[in-house]
Amino acid sequence: LKGILFISIYIAFFHLLGINTMKVKGKHFSSIWVDELDKSLINIIDQRKLPFEFKILQLRTIKDYFDAIKDMAVRGAPLIGVTAGFAIYVAALESQNSADWTRYIVDMANYIKSARPTAVNLEWAVNDQLNLIESSGNPSEYIELLYHNACKLRENDIEINRQIGINGVVLIENLNKYLKRTVNILTHCNAGWLATVDYGTALSPIFEANARGIDVHVWVDETRPRNQGAKLTAWELENEGIKHTVIPDNTGGHLMQNGIVDIVIVGTDRTSINGDVANKIGTYLKALAAYDNNIPFYVAAPSSSIDFSIDTSKSKIPIEQRDQREVRYVDGLLEGQLVEILTVPEESPCANYAFDVTPSRLVTGLITEMGICSSKKEGISNLFPNRV
Ligand code: MRU
Q1: Neighbour order of strands in the sheet with 306-307
Q2: Contact (CB, 8 A) for 115 and 73
Q3: Cα 200 to middle of ligand 1, angstroms
Q4: What is the per-residue pLDDT across 64-89, written as a single tens digit (0 to 9) for each?
Q5: Which residues, listed in sequence order, are joined to residue 243 by a DSSP beta bridge?
Q6: How many other CB atoms sit within 10 Å of the CB of residue 189?
Q7: For 132-167, how does the pLDDT look when each residue is reduced to its tens digit (9 = 90+)?
Q8: Exposure of 43 by Cβ count < 10 A (0-12 exposed, 13-18 middle, 19+ buried)?
Q9: C-alpha to C-alpha distance for 44 and 33, rounded to whole angstroms
């Protein structure tokens, strides 16, 4: 009951401020939340089934967390980070049955980190939790400390993404004033609220523009092989009543040449401090096309996705390679049933690089929670002087 009351107050508060919260068929949801009855249980929306099935999964054991991240029931760099934060809290709960409980937590931290290598948010959140353990002495204290810190990571993510929306909407607003017509925005993969706890990164300025009554239309790259654009971004935009069109991944260049893309906004899994951007495979090609056609190319980058420890991407950003099966098969709805179909000759080998790196020279700017900056070291250090 307390939980329901809290959520209602939260929604009412944001409505009073005129700020939109993300909805599923009119009801507010975030992508991850603590169970109202048992705080050792964490609820997530199973993103593998969307948009065809809306299913909530409960994570209980450290293996549940590993599988959810690895198999992409939760995905998107910020959400992977927050989920990993809760995983370390659960590791601490499980560690009570272990002879060497600190060893257990460290081993589980490495296990969780190995689930997906590219999004820096994962190791960042795990390390943030591990740092707490070094500074205190009592095992039962750790559990509360880790729980509260995981909740804090979750809440911070909401606020950071809301702020990215407020900072980024200025770009859309200015284009709308200048062009005096619908602003056409192209986005890749899913960097909406499902990829974070709420609001999203690349989609946050778009949601904010919609809330302010600015006329926008979104070109949604379908984003093979997992189709996060076609399945998740399109679903989010539909839920918010925002005009959008799903396009095959190869269409963006043609649209840009023909003047029907005004701005590209994408997310990031890891941005180095010289502004090289690792994001979903195919982002680099969009950046090249945008550059060739003089179209602004922005990256929505929460500080949790900036890797302040690497000054250049060159061979330092690990690029995840996933199972060939994701390329080989496509899934979708057939006569009401979720089915998978083979689309490749059975004997042909497939490659599944999950991310690519867009060099900073192709990136017009970064939209962060602290403001918009150039995708250069100076730009990033102006906004984050204590971290660069
Ligand atoms: O493989 P995914 O679905 O986790 O990849 C998601 C992306 O590439 C997003 O663009 C990125 O995580 C930024 S999310 C706000």
Answers
A1: 306-307, 270-272, 277-280, 355-358
A2: no
A3: 10
A4: 999 999 999 999 999 999 999 999 99
A5: 217
A6: 29
A7: 986 556 677 789 999 999 999 999 999 999 999 999
A8: middle
A9: 7
